[in-house]
Amino acid sequence: MEEPPSTSGGIKRAIPQEFQDKMDETAAKLPRVTATPAVLNDNQKRHLIVGVCLHSVISPALRKYVIPILTPLYEELTLKQKIDTQTYSTRLKQYQPTKTFLNYDAVNNNKALYGYQSAQYDYTIKSVVDLSKLFLQTHMAQYTGFDETCDFSALFGLIINIDKFPAVVKSNAKDVRDKVRNQWAHCDFTNWDAVKYSDSFQLMTNLVKNLCLSSNEENQTLLELKKWEIIGNKLITMSS
Hints:
- 55% of the residues lie in helices and 2% in strands.
- It is mostly helical.
- Helix 2 (42-81) runs parallel beside helix 7 (194-209), helix 5 packs antiparallel against helix 6 and helix 6 runs antiparallel to helix 7 (194-209).
- The two termini are 25 Å apart.
């Protein structure tokens, strides 16, 4: 019988190539994880799998979710506040429902072109994407659309900072951001034991279930999460 192909680290591949590629892609983004999945310890493997889920499962679901909620807000502010034609003197400075001061640095390439000369900024907001940037810190608002350039940090920020999102989704998003994403980003592998791993998947699952996606999209997203959770446990079993 023909032997199954092996990974670069020598473990026979027991997962589809698609999943292996996503793990390799996520590992490459982590400066402190330079080893292949075959030679990572158990906590590092759990950490890597959660990162794959944040990048490849949660982010795409959130990108689809935010568009139909932010689009009516853009239309409302265009109609009532004329944000698509505003100038320095007429700009909307604060979003009243949440008392949020709006950040115009990242729209229209303002900060790069004019530095701190805010009077020279272009304050016209001509898309829902640009509107979304007003609610984020400048370094989080460097995306060009609700696509791969818009990462989960920005998406969590939008949901948490804008009042149009349901309270339960805000709460779920805050839990995933604070208890999963932030701890994942710190690359402290000591905390990623089996309990932390299981809790992270439960928090991500809770978030997906409350996004009110179509039945098919929700089922597919939850299935992807479950597949990755199983793959992570399989990787650990293979090395034990």
